[in-house]
Structure formats: structure tokens, C-alpha cells
Design goal:
With 369 residues, this protein is of the alpha/beta class. Helices cover 43% and strands 17% of the residues. It contains 14 helices and twelve strands. Strand 7, helix 6 and strand 8 form a beta-alpha-beta unit. Helix 2 crosses helix 10, helix 2 packs across helix 11 and helix 8 crosses helix 12. It starts with a helix and ends in a 14-residue tail after the last helix.
Length: 369
């Protein structure tokens, strides 16, 4: 090969090599926010249900500890018998909704705002909320040198995990209640809303690029471990200090075709929550072990110990609070007035609860017929 040709080929090869990380990053960004390779548990002994496998998605957050613990302890797989459990993890709700729409997962643990958005954008055709998992576990943490009171938040840079996610809606609604104006799309206004991945938020805080964050656990306590202070616990803004932070959703197609599998996952969730509430210390250690498996390292005691008690694990989806959160999204300018009729189907959950000797839960008038 002539020298000129060899030089040209070499340059092309180097350019391709340089572009490879960008290509990999682009492909990863199309992976619906997945943080870890898909993991399939070995099917337990027992009869296989109507599906060979069920694909479950959740976040590596403590507010998703029902999923973390149920997965770690094999409770879901035990209830599924010979049907395999395949798990993927996500960074934020909109990514999980994309995966559900793309038929990459069947069931997911997710916050209320993405569930509302996913339901309304599909005109009520892509998902149902079939259960609750957790309440609380969200805090506004701030730099105490810059922010000493609520009034000091004005003019500062506050992080939320993702545009339109549950914490983003909650912060915009709270800011509006303070009389501050913020453009919901750009995040600019009397307060600057900086949409920042939860994994990046601690470094963003240390670098000074954000002055605080409205985030779920364990990110809130990670920021506190870096010197931030809790200015507000979102639970204090709700009646009885309860609001849904994690729902269980399922694709309508999967619910119709495999109701026995959905019921098995819900039974696993109910039994996991019962075990968590009866064994809080063991459950905390179990959740941390799964976080280590997913992320490569466990949470430090100084992070998980203050974070864990702020989360309530509940099978009740707290439907009335989801209606309120939808109103908050409308008020913030992130959502047109939604029609949420039919977003819930709690019949499988109430069947499980009855079998466990537990009271039924309500859908706030938003149940599927």
C-alpha cells in the first residue's frame, strides 16, 4: 500500500477509535437508562406460570427497597416458581416508561409522575398501576453556607433528578407555592432548576455547580455526608406525612395475558414489605447488599442509617396523593389536565391482600372497570 494510502487508513482508524467511546455512549443512552446488565435469577422449583419469564425494572434507590430486598432475598422468584425473573435497573422514571413502551420490561417500580405521563401520553393504553411500594424518602438538602432558610433558596441552583420526574414536579410545585416563577422546560427563573442525574449530584454539589437538591434517598443523605443540610422533608408537606413515592406498574398487555404472573409479583411485594417492616435492620442490610451488587459498592453507614427511617414501606398506592401530584404537574406547566380514569387496577393486589388477611386498598375512584 502506498505511503499516502497507509497514512489515510491510519488516520481513519484513529478517528474511528476516537469515535468509539462516543458511539458506545450514544448506544447506552438508548438503553432506557439501564445502569446494570440484565440479571436473570434461576427459576425456583415449582410449576411454571403462564409466562416463561417476567422482566422487572426498578431503580437502585432506597425508595425502591421493596424491589431491592425482594430481589436480593429471592422472594419474588420464590413466588414465581418456575417462571424466571429478569431484572433491569434505571436511573429515573421516564427511562423506565420508555422501556415499558418498547416492550423491554413487563413490570416496573416507578414514581407517580412518570406513571401519570406514561398513562396520559398513551391515552390510557400502555400501563396500569397495580400496587404501591413506598412513601416518603425525599428531601430538600442545601449548602448551609449559602442557604439558611426557605427564603434563601430564591436565586440559587437546585438539582432535581430529571425533567418531569416526580421530584422535579414536587420542587416546581413547592417553588410556585413560595411565589417564585420558574420556566418548567428550561428550569430558569427565580430559582434555577438543574436537572442532574442522582449519580452525579454529589460531585456537582462538591464542585459548587449546585447549591442544593430535591432528591430521593440515598442521594439526599449522600449530599448530607458531603456537608449539606436537610432544609425540608417532603413528607412534612402532606396529610398524615404520607405520599406515594414508588408505585408498581405493569403493561396492560402483560396484565391481560399473564394475570397469574402479575399476582405472583404482587404477592412477592406484599410479603417483602411485611418482612421489611418486621425486620428493619436486616432489611436495610439486604437492600445495601443488592445496591453493592448493582453499583459495585454498598452505601456507607453515615448515608444509609439516616436515610432508611425516612421511608415507609406500604402496599397501599396512596391513590389520592397521586391525584394531587397530577394537579401539581398541571400547575407547574409540565402536563395538561390529565384523564386518569382507569389508571389503577387494584383487583389483583386486593386479592393478594385478602389471602394474607389484610384490608383492601382504594383507587380514589380511578380504577379500571
Amino acid at each position: 500500500m502506498p505511503t499516502t494510502s497507509r497514512t489515510t487508513a491510519l488516520r481513519r482508524g484513529l478517528a474511528a477509535a476516537a469515535a468509539l467511546p462516543l458511539l458506545i455512549g450514544a448506544l447506552a443512552s438508548c438503553g432506557y437508562g439501564s445502569q446494570a446488565p440484565e440479571e436473570t435469577q434461576v427459576a425456583a422449583k415449582g410449576e411454571k406460570l403462564s409466562a416463561d419469564q417476567v422482566r422487572l425494572g426498578y431503580f437502585p434507590n432506597l425508595t425502591h427497597a421493596t424491589a431491592l430486598v425482594g430481589h436480593q432475598e429471592g422472594i419474588f422468584q420464590k413466588e414465581l416458581g418456575g417462571t424466571q425473573l429478569q431484572v433491569s435497573t434505571f436511573n429515573a422514571g421516564p427511562s423506565a416508561i420508555e422501556a415499558l413502551n418498547a416492550d423491554s420490561i413487563d413490570i416496573g417500580f416507578i414514581g407517580p409522575s412518570p406513571a401519570i405521563n406514561g398513562y396520559t401520553k398513551s391515552k390510557g393504553k400502555n400501563l396500569r398501576i397495580v400496587g404501591g411500594a413506598a412513601s416518603g424518602g425525599v428531601k430538600l438538602v442545601v449548602d448551609p453556607d449559602k442557604i439558611k432558610s426557605v427564603a434563601d433558596v430564591k436565586g440559587k441552583r437546585i438539582a432535581t433528578p430529571q425533567h418531569g420526574n416526580t421530584q422535579d414536579v414536587a420542587f416546581l410545585n413547592w417553588a410556585s407555592e413560595q411565589g417564585w416563577k420558574v420556566d418548567p422546560q428550561s428550569g430558569k427563573g427565580d430559582v434555577s432548576v438543574v436537572r442532574t442525574d442522582n449519580k452525579v449530584a454529589p460531585d456537582a454539589y462538591k464542585s459548587g455547580s449546585i447549591d442544593g437538591a430535591w432528591v430521593p434517598e440515598p442521594t439526599a443523605s449522600k449530599l448530607v455526608s458531603e456537608g449539606a443540610k436537610v432544609l425540608l422533608d417532603e413528607s412534612s408537606l402532606w396529610p398524615d406525612q404520607k405520599f406515594v413515592i414508588t408505585n408498581i406498574i405493569v403493561s396492560q398487555r402483560f396484565l391481560e395475558e399473564h394475570p397469574d404472573v402479575v399476582e405472583a409479583v404482587l404477592r412477592g411485594s406484599v410479603r417483602t414489605n411485611a418482612w421489611i417492616n418486621a425486620n428493619p435492620d436486616k432489611a436495610k442490610a439486604s437492600a445495601n447488599a443488592k445496591l453493592k451488587a448493582l453499583t459495585g459498592k454498598p452505601l456507607a453507614d453515615k448515608v444509609i442509617d439516616p436515610a432508611w427511617p425516612s421511608i415507609r414501606f406500604t402496599d397501599d398506592p396512596l391513590a389520592a396523593t397521586l391525584k394531587a401530584q397530577a394537579d401539581h404537574a398541571v400547575k407547574a406547566g409540565l402536563l395538561e389536565k390529565p384523564d386518569l380514569d382507569g389508571i389503577y387496577d387494584l383487583k389483583p393486589l386486593n386479592k393478594v391482600l385478602k389471602a394474607e388477611g389484610r384490608p383492601s386498598v382504594a383507587d380514589a375512584g380511578l380504577g379500571a372497570e
